[in-house]
Amino acid sequence: MINFNVPPFTGKEMDYMKETIENQKICGDGPFTKKCSEWIEQQTKTAKCLLTTSCTHATELAALLTDIKEGDEVILPSYTFVSTADAFVLRGARAVFVDIRPDTMNIDETLIEDAITERTKVIAPVHYAGVGCEMDVIMEIADRHHLMVVEDAAQGIMASYKGKALGTFGDFGCFSFHETKNFSMGEGGALLIRDEKYIEEAEIIREKGTDRSKYYRGQVDKYRWQNYGSSYLPSDMNAAYLYAQLELAEEITQARIDRWNQYRELLAPLEKEGKIELPYIPDYCSHNGHMFYIKTKDMEERSRLIEYLKKKEILSVFHYVPLHSAPAGLKFGRFHGEDKYTTKESERILRLPLFYKLTADQVEYIANQVRAFYQ
Ligand SMILES: *Cc1c(COP(=O)(O)O)cnc(C)c1O
User: Fold this and answer.
1) What is the pTM of this model?
2) How far is the CA of 173 from the centre of ligand 1 (A)?
3) Ligand 1 pocket: which of 53, 81, 88, 317 to mutate (most atoms <8 Å of CB)?
4) Which atom of ligand 1 lies closest to the CA of 127?
5) Which residues make beta-bridge pairs with 160?
6) Lowest mean pLDDT among 74-78, 115-119, 218-222, 306-310
7) Using one digit for the tens of pLDDT, what is the confidence trace for 86-124?
8) Under a CB-based contact definition with an 8 Å cutoff, are residues 78 and 329 in contact?
9) Which residues contact 316 (CB under 8 A, 6 or more apart)?
10) Ligand 1 atom having least distance to the Cα of 58
């Protein structure tokens, strides 16, 4: 059976985790957390990276930093994972969903401005499949309307838009290191902070509302309760696991991109025949091989293809029931404008297996089976 996902593993994880245990440094903000954060800061060229317990928590932390309040609105796509909305809704905000572009499955930047009201506080674009949203346009709209931008870059590490890392355009960017992502620590994430002025407040909220980070750096002689907060820091054992993968980040990313390109090449004839559609990557976006998907004619054909592939020992999946039509979406949000693509495209998308150790032979086998289905 070819699984849909196999969590990345490089071999060094055990050694590094063992090191944290032997050195009795397993709580948060230990040596590996520091290494990971510094690595991410260098790779993305952002002012600050704070490791968190998940991307969901990174987004919650970002929502707290935007000071979003009850009745405020956040503009986001409906075609996304629940966390993008949860973080803001948890603070009493309303989710205002706008349609996606069918080519990249990202928020349609041309529809954002019309959804802005006097209550709008934040725009939360999602870089689907590690392919950048139109950040030039989004940032220009945000600046003109004095809105904050929180990027859901859960799938976006090692990917860029016009040469700049995803997650570094908005006020805040959020990465995920869940086991389904390109690099993993089991559960984990990171908050990227663009402007230094937010660093101190972010550190405080992440550490239960205290200035313990300053205390550890020897900048204050005792730490005290400074603000509201929570506990968003992961154990250094998890960070150790992640660091083993960050060390091989280039290699892991390249392996995924190679398999991605191979899928694309082998399935191009089916696209030419008009049987399926393949992902589109704008010239100025450099993606990270996070996801390979195809689009079938409709939901019925997709279900048959999933069954067909399962019989050939291949697990393929789809995701994201649009948030606006889900029970919580109806309660906490509204769709602005017409749902031209969100529902329709979400019913056609099918994700094929893609993970670090997936082999070229396996990709060839999978592509052959997809082609066989359409013969
Ligand atoms: C995975 C994912 C998340 C959530 O990440 P966690 O680390 O599991 O909290 C949020 N948004 C998107 C788009 C994701 O793909």
Assistant:
1) 0.97
2) 12
3) 81
4) 13
5) 165, 286
6) 218-222
7) 999 999 999 999 999 999 999 999 999 999 999 999 999
8) yes
9) 4, 305, 306, 309, 310, 350, 351, 352, 353
10) 9
CA distance 160 to 131: 8
Model pLDDT, residue 45: 98
List ligand 1's pocket residues with C-beta within 6 A: 54-56, 80-81, 83-84, 126, 152, 154-155, 176, 178, 189
Tokens linked to 219: 């900048």
Query: 191, 182, 223, 159: which is closest to 49 by C-alpha?
Result: 191
CA 135: distance to chain centroid?
15
- In a mutational test of the pocket of ligand 1, which residue from 155, 179, 238, 318 has the highest number of ligand atoms less than 8 Å from its CB? 155
- Give one DSSP letter per residue of 328-353, joined into a string: HHHHHEEE-S--SSHHHHHTTEEEEP
- Mean pLDDT across 287-303: 98
Contact 56, 87 (CB under 8 A): yes
Q: What is the pLDDT of residues 128-137, one digit of tens each?
A: 999 999 999 9
